[in-house]
Structures are given as C-alpha cells and as structure tokens.
Design a protein that fits this description.
By secondary structure, this protein is an alpha/beta fold. The longest helix has 20 residues, at 410-429. It is globular. 26% of the residues lie in helices and 17% in strands. Helix 1 links the parallel strand 3 (40-45) and strand 4 (64-70). It is built from 13 helices and 17 strands. The strands form 3 sheets. It has a 9-stranded mixed sheet.
C-alpha cells in the first residue's frame, strides 16, 4: 500500500486501452453536445440489478438513445431484462473494446458497476469527451475521486453522480431554507442507517476460496483495476459491497443519500478528524457489524464548526431528541439490495441541530420537518421552495445537451465522497484519524495516509491513474 497520493495532474492526450487500440487526440477532447431535439447516444456499462433501474430511468426520459450495452456477465439472470428490452443493441463484456469499436457513436455513458470499477470506466469515458452518469459513490478511494474531479473539469463533460434525491424535493427545500435563514448555525448532525446489511452476521479470516469461473463471466474484466482475487460467487451480485477491496460499506452506500444536501448547502467540505468511537466486529477484510463515526468539520466563513456522527449496525441506534416523533420516510425510496427497510428499527435518516430549530429528515428526496412545538408554531410560515424541473436522470441528459447543469456534478459530489472515504479508512484501521484539508493527507497514521491512494492497480490498468 505504498503508492503515493497523486494530486490533480495534467492528463495525457491519449487513452491506452489494455489489449485494444490506442486513441490519439491531437488536442484536448471536448464533449460534443447533441443538437436541440436530438436524443443523447448512451452506452450502458453494467446492465443488471441497480444498473438496470438506471438504464430504464434514463430511457424513460425520452432523451436517451441506447446504442451499446456492456456487462462482464451477459449470461447472468439479472442481465436478461435489459437484453430483452434492447435486443438489437450491440453487446460487449469489456468496456475498453466497446469504446474501441463504437467510440464515435457514443456521446454519454451510464456506469452501474460495483464501486471499485467506477473509476476506470469513468476515466476512460471522460478522456474521450463522453458525458458520464456514475452511481454513487464516485470511486473507491480518495485519490480516485480527486482524479475524477480533475477530469470532469479538464474535459468539460457533464458528470452526474447517482444520488437521485439530489434532484428532488429535499434538495430544493434544503437550499431554500438555508438561503432564507431557516437552517442556520448548524453545529451538530446525527445520521443513521440501521437496517440489515449483507455482511451482518458474517465472519471471515481471509478472502474466499477459489471456485470455477462461470463460462458466461469475464472475470478479468470484472476485477478491472482491483488487485487479483480468485473468483468466488460470494463476491458477486452486491456481495462485493461487504468487502473493503470492492465496496464502501453502509456509509459509502447510504451516506450520499442521507447527508448529501447538508454537506453541499452547509459547505462542509473535508473533515479535520474522524474518530471511530465504536467499532463492533472489526475485520481487515469486511466492514464492521456496527460502527459509530464522529466527523469534525471546521468553521467555514461565518458558519460554525459541525460535528457529524454516523451510526450503522442493527442494534447501534442513535440518541435522538425526546420529542422527535415518527420517522420521515419517502415511500419511493428503493429498498436496500438485501430486501425491505427493516421496520423494527428506525429507517435511514438524520437529525440536524441548528440555532433556532432542530430538524428531522429521512433519505433520498424526503423533506425536513422541524421537531417539537417549534415545528407546530412554524406551520404555514415556512418559505415555499420550487418544484424540481427535472429528475436526476433527465437533469443529466439535459446537461449533456447543454440545457441544464448536473446537480450532483463530480465537483459537488467529490468532496462528499472523499469525506466518506476518510470515514471508511477510520473503520478499516480502527483508529482516530487527523486530516489536513490543505495538503489532503492524514497526518497521524502512516498506513491510513497511504490508503488514501487505494490499492496499487494491476499493471495493465495503471494508465488510468496516469492520465
């Protein structure tokens, strides 16, 4: 884990795709904008499970023309729905070969792959001037997110992270209430996700044993830039989220849906400290059974410092105001990949402590409510907020056409994901971390500081980190 952190670097003008042709660009590529009335030619990398939902949502806008489908396992049951819906669209198992053959026909891509493979797919696309819709979290390491933000800026592409609530009611309410002074002088945030996760109840003392690779799966392409692991079905179909090498745990999965608007509109940026005040079932391989992480964000202008505390684990319930009342739940929230949200514990949510009011909220698009008697007193007096002009998928496609700006651009989403990445490192090393936002380094823990760069990529994937 000795790969040094690489800050934003100048990108070379060609993308080398391992085992494929070389792309040469005599000048910096700029993303082309489809003309008015035209659909965006969209290639989809990852087509099963959550990726299938993304593709259907993008297609439902009427603004996308699906021109290519790419998945490392085209024979898997979860890919069949999209394959049947678009039977005549060209199919690939390696995104590099897809760009080799169809690069000129592609204007944008969707990335619905496991967390660890977001980075190479997205960097390849942006280097060619393609717009990107990428599921959350953006990448799997602090360094990857830094490079993705730099590429978005350099190639002037529309890049949207897929925390879809960022285009719905909570987004517009939070912004309006901050602008109007309803939410002000916030000093404390409690965020929680207590539903069952895939790794709950799991114990391991190493990686999973080797199993035969299914004939339909391109295992090498599935691994992408990750260090080599032997195939085991225990890594597939969402199970990868349990492992530090492949996923980002409960925090990386749900943090971007719970405190994303607070992070943006309170201008939290990067923390100066993350303390794992509780870690149950610490492992070097999988995420803990429960964790409580205390983030400290410094003052920003006239905004005071903020303590944000994250709780995950089925029994690790957060302390809440006595007059909290019921939870705030949006019925349109997609359930966790393991099933329905557990109604025996509180649904995912947050409490925000401001100067005048304390607010409770849920996840995704759910709007905030003022807790207690003050909430009753303010009923009918709160400022109205605008309705969303476009959902998250339409917003992205309109941004590709130059008609809107991505609401969860990499510039906005990157620092949010980087803050979570530091929290994940605190879980992994089970130690309090002190972070310097100026140098973007962990100053008190050598191993954790080295882990900001992530694991060294396999040799044939190194080019994505040198762009």
């Amino acid at each position: 884990m000795s790969t040094p952190f690489i800050p934003r670097r100048t990108f070379v003008r060609n993308v080398l795709a391992a085992g494929s042709a070389t792309f040469f660009a005599p000048t910096i590529l700029r993303a082309a904008k489809p003309s008015a009335g035209q659909k965006v030619n969209l290639a989809c990398v990852g087509i099963g499970n959550r990726a299938a939902e993304i593709i259907e949502a993008l297609h439902a806008t009427g603004l996308a023309n699906i021109v290519a489908l790419c998945d490392t396992d085209m024979g898997a049951p979860h890919t069949q729905k999209i394959l049947k819906k678009f039977p005549d669209v060209p199919r690939f198992q390696d995104f590099r070969k897809m760009f080799d053959k169809m690069g000129k026909e592609i204007e944008a891509i969707s990335v619905g792959t496991p967390d660890f493979s977001h980075f190479p797919v997205t960097m390849h696309a942006m280097s060619l001037g393609k717009h990107v819709y990428c599921e959350k979290p953006m990448g799997s390491s602090f360094r990857e997110m830094e490079l993705m933000m730099a590429a978005e800026k350099k190639y002037k592409v529309a890049a949207q992270m897929g925390n879809q609530g960022h285009s719905e009611a909570n987004y517009f309410q939070f912004k309006t209430w901050v602008d109007e002074g309803i939410i002000k002088d916030v000093t404390k945030i409690t965020a929680f996700m207590n539903s069952k996760r895939r790794w709950h109840g799991m114990t391991v003392d190493g990686y999973l044993p080797k199993q035969p690779v299914p004939d339909s799966l391109d295992w090498d392409s599935w691994l992408a830039a990750a260090q080599f692991h032997e195939y085991n079905k225990g890594y597939m179909n969402g199970e990868w989220r349990s492992w530090y090498d492949f996923g980002n745990g409960a925090l990386g999965d749900w943090g971007a849906h719970i405190f994303d608007t607070a992070h943006e509109f309170l201008k939290l940026g990067l923390p100066t400290e993350v303390d794992p005040v509780l870690i149950e079932g610490h492992s070097n391989f999988i995420f803990p059974q429960a964790s409580t992480l205390s983030f400290k964000f410094p003052a920003r202008g006239d905004m005071p410092p903020v303590d944000l505390t994250w709780y995950d684990g089925q029994q690790n319930l957060p302390p809440l105001p006595v007059d909290m009342g019921g939870s705030v739940v949006d019925p349109n929230i997609p359930p966790p990949s393991t099933g329905q949200i557990d109604t025996k514990v509180r649904p995912p949510g947050k409490v925000i402590y401001g100067k005048d009011f304390t607010f409770k909220g849920g996840s995704h698009a759910t709007t905030l409510e003022i807790i207690g008697e003050k909430g009753k007193e303010m009923k009918g007096k709160l400022p109205n907020f605008p309705k969303s002009p476009s959902n998250h998928f339409k917003n992205f496609l309109l941004a590709c056409k130059g008609e809107e700006t991505c609401r969860s651009s990499f510039e906005v989403a990157g620092p949010l994901c980087q803050a979570m990445a530091i929290g994940i490192l605190a879980q992994r090393v089970n130690a309090k971390l002190t972070f310097d936002p100026a140098t973007k380094s962990i100053t008190n823990h050598k191993v954790a500081n080295e882990l900001l760069a992530g694991a060294p990529p396999r040799k044939e994937w190194e080019q994505y980190f040198k762009l």
